[in-house]
Amino acid sequence: MIAIKEHIAKQFIGRTYRFKCDCLVPLDIIGVVKDYEMSNNEIILLVEHNSRLLHIGVNTPSLYIEERF
Predict the structure, then answer these.
(1) Apex CA 27: angle with CA 14 and CA 17, to 5°?
(2) Of 9, 11, 37, 61, which has the highest C-beta tally within 10 A?
(3) Which residues contact 59 (CB under 8 A, 6 or more apart)?
(4) CB-based contacts of 62: which residues, under 8 Å, 6+ apart?
(5) Three-state SS sequence of 1-48
(6) pTM for this prediction
(7) What is the pLDDT of residues 36-68, one digit of tens each?
C-alpha cells in the first residue's frame, strides 16, 4: 500500500500547471512538475520554470493551481 499523500503527489509529476499565490512572496508562474518531496507531512512540488527548479509547498492556504495542456 501507499500513503495517500504520496499517491496525490505522484499525480502531479510530468504535468504543466499554473501556480498562483497571493502570499508574502506573490507567485504567478507556469511550470512542469518534475518531482516532489515530503517534508513534515507536507507535499513540496519541484517545479521547473525558466530552467530553474522551484519548491512549492501545497499547504499554502492561498495557493491556486490550474492545469495547462
Answers:
(1) 20
(2) 9
(3) 42, 43
(4) 21, 22, 23
(5) CCCHHHHHHHCCCCCEEEEEECCCCCEEEEEEEEEEEEECCEEEEEEE
(6) 0.92
(7) 999 999 999 999 999 999 999 999 889 999 999
The DSSP symbol for 61 reads T
Q: What is the total residue count of the chain?
A: 69
Cell numbers 512542469 correspond to what residue? 32
Q: Which residue has the cell 517545479?
A: 47
Query: Of residues 25 and 17, which shows the higher confidence score?
Result: 17
Instruction: Report which residue type is found at 17.
Output: Y
Q: What is the pLDDT of residue 3?
A: 92
